[in-house]
Specification:
alpha+beta, about 30% strand
Amino acid sequence: MLDKILNYLKYGNRFCGIEHYSSNGRDILQLCVLKQSKNELNIELAAKFETTEEASKKLSKNQHVVLVINTDKVLSKTIESEQNDALKNVYKAFPNINLDDFYFEVLSENNTHFISLCRIDYIESILKDYSEKNIHIIDISFGNTIISSVKPFTNSRTIHTSNAITTIKDSYIVQIKKDEVEPNNYDVNGLTVSNDQILSFSAALQGVLKNSTTKTNFEEKKSALLNDFKQVRFFSQFLKLGGLFILVLLLVNFFFFNQYFNKVNDLKQVSEINQSTKGQILKLDEIVSKKQKMVDDLLKSNGSKSSFYCDRIMQSLPQSILLSEFNYQPLLKRIKVDKAIELERNSISVSGASSDSDAFSKWIALLEQEDWIDKVEIIDYGSTASSVSDFRIKIVLSNE
């Protein structure tokens, strides 16, 4: 019980994994959050994002994350060797590598070794980006090696990830092959996980179980990341406990001295509430008056001629043109409180779709002949399908 309490104080009850991978030249963040309730784990959130800022908005404050870097900057190789020394296996896979510039991770499955490495400066730039968005990285993994975390909890012999196919035989991973993957769902101890989510799920699960078996040359870096998070977590928990302690003191003080309150104090409180309510009512009345003025200004700006213009344009409309917008004197800027409404006066914005370019040209020419139209500007005219073109025109009024 004490271990559970301490573990909760250190990490909370939510464990997050993020797979940072490449797709069509763009970086994608696949996020998975597991919530621990008693002795059960459930997927609370699984979503994709294109930026760390978007991802940070979905995470709770001071959430810790196990990060899987699986972009095209990660180099991966598989070798067969009876040698268990991770460093020697790295040099066997990459003979001319300068490890002063690279972090590596090695997953050994019997005599098969899966080696992934990435440049240190690239990793540091990613960690800096996450740190600036208040996402606390406590562990890092490269490529697809973290799939070993879910291996004991699934009966699937072939697992498709975001960019590779993992083959399991006799409880050992025998192959991780970069290839085109097929969408699939996997049963992981009763939880349904898609192939896009499997690596981020594995990362979150590793955060719960602490079951990593890989060897790296950046253990000190991982320890530093974990210690940084623990300090943030401790400070956060300290503030919460301190606030709770102060609240308890205030409650004790309230219950002990509440009996000395008298009717004068009660009347004073009622008076203060009435004054506050009166002030709020006056403020609301002022806000309503300003908004009413804004609405009146907007209504005044649209004269009775708008119906005339609308009717004339609609009557001239060919059957091959379908309007989607008719905006008389459109706004130049968004309406803001305490700001004057700015309109593009003496103009009408019209947009829609045309299935006949000749009819569209004749319609424009017909509009230009109207004595109340100064000119017609074609703002946009482009094809969205083989026979339909979207358009947007601006009609400048000559006598408004």
